[in-house]
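User: My instructor asked us to take a sequence, write out its structure as tokens, and then describe one feature of it. I'm not sure where to start. Here is the sequence I was given:
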Amino acid sequence: MKVKTLTILAMALGFMAVSAQTGHTAAVKLKAAYFLPGGVYVKYFKDWVNHTNKQCSGHFNISMVGPAAIKSLEQWNALKNGVIDLHYGPPNYYKGVMPEADVTILAKNETADQRKNGAWAMVNELHKKKMNAIYLTNILNGVNFYIYTNKPAVNKRFEGFRLRSVAIYDGFFKFLGAQPVRMSAPQIRTALERKTVDGYGWPLWGIKDFGWDKYTKYRHGPGFFSATVNIIANQDKYNGMSSAGRKCMMDQAIWLEGQWPSWRAAEAINQTKPQDDAGIKYVDMGAGFSKKAEALYWAELSKANPAFIKKIRPLLSK
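Assistant: Let's start with the prediction itself. The structure tokens for your sequence are:
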């Protein structure tokens, strides 16, 4: 009797173990890295992660680290190699492996429209092939760049100016007579203070976050490009999740695209006032200013992948 009882107990425990394994899979732990230490640009990504963790509870949980843990310019490669599972950063950071990565900065339509008309699928396919990544969505579409300086342009030119730049507008700055200078965002304040640069290219948002408003006197526009920052996932990790988990993650990307236009409009008001309060004067450089920036960059991207650019360009128009 005792042996029979033990046998039944062992069978019951074995059945329970199998049931637990098949019916109650633990939530997958995912690690995300974001490219800036804080401020308005990181806020919306953190909001999205917190929302996604709630909506997808039981499927996965995302923890976050910033550039203090993984340097900004190394995060994309960490994602590609599976060291991290998600990355929030500008696509121009990985132009070396994907020259056409940041084509969406030239978009005139909403990201939600790009998903509907096929542009999103084209960008996603590029990320799969060249970055071992899934392109979920982006934040900051429609937030334009400007040229900020401590002295005004002369005859709509920046001859002799040293301007902090990134690859996407190097050509434009050179066309305007300026010398592009490379440095990370956290280094800009010291460079302005020491006057080793005369200005910088940056979107409308975040000037006060970094303390640059104290050293900035002019904002030259109209704005050009969009400050698109991608949210991408490691392809291997993404594919290894359950179908329900993958669907939940993508559903939250789609949700973000629906929310973004109203978030952007409200934030633009919040970001313009601090610049006005700091006495930063807007200088209108004329309609040709932004058009020239866009024309130069379309030409550069076309050299890298002419067939892709020819196909996607109409899909990024209004």
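For the description part of your assignment, you could build on this observation: The chain has a mean pLDDT of 92. Try explaining in your own words what that tells you about the chain.
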